[in-house]
Design brief:
alpha+beta; OB fold (Dihydrolipoamide Acetyltransferase, E2P); five-stranded mixed β-barrel
Length: about 150
């Protein structure tokens, strides 16, 4: 069978490295299955999954200009892709238009904003004054303050 992208081929594991496995495809052709393409799950040690001499079915994923062949074992499996359906979350937010008239809503929001802003400014001033108190004597180099 010809070696082209998308073709499923049978091959034999001819060598194993820490980053993948070399697969002998016959006719003097060899391709590489990267460790991430060996299994759907995480593979820490490729020796746990493959060993030299194992026969595997691979899918040709890439053929480089230099003749290097990229292979995948996990994409060659005939499992249909599982589509995950996530439950839709509904958020129940109170609608301010229903409970207040437009003028009341802006007045309430303005009061909340003003109170939040004044408390923020007060906290900010307190922090700045304590920071100044703690760093004022630590400025300058040798010999104290310079003018």
């Amino acid at each position: 069978m010809s070696t082209e992208v998308g073709a499923k081929l049978k091959g034999k594991v001819s060598g194993i490295t820490n980053f993948g496995a070399f697969i002998d495809l016959g006719e003097g052709k060899t391709g590489l299955v990267h460790i991430s393409e060996v299994s759907n799950g995480f593979v820490k040690d490729i020796h746990d999954v493959l060993s030299v001499g194992d026969e595997v079915t691979v899918l040709v994923t890439a053929i480089g200009n230099d003749g290097k062949i990229g292979l995948s074992i996990r994409k060659a499996e005939d499992k249909p892709e599982e589509k995950r359906e996530y439950p839709k979350k509904e958020f129940n937010r109170p609608n301010p238009k229903k409970s207040f008239s437009r003028n009341q809503t802006t007045n309430v929001n303005k009061q909340d904003f003003d109170s939040l802003m004044s408390s923020f400014l007060k906290d900010s001033d307190d922090r700045l004054s304590s920071l100044r108190r703690n760093t004022e004597g630590k400025r300058g180099g040798r010999g104290g303050r310079r003018n």
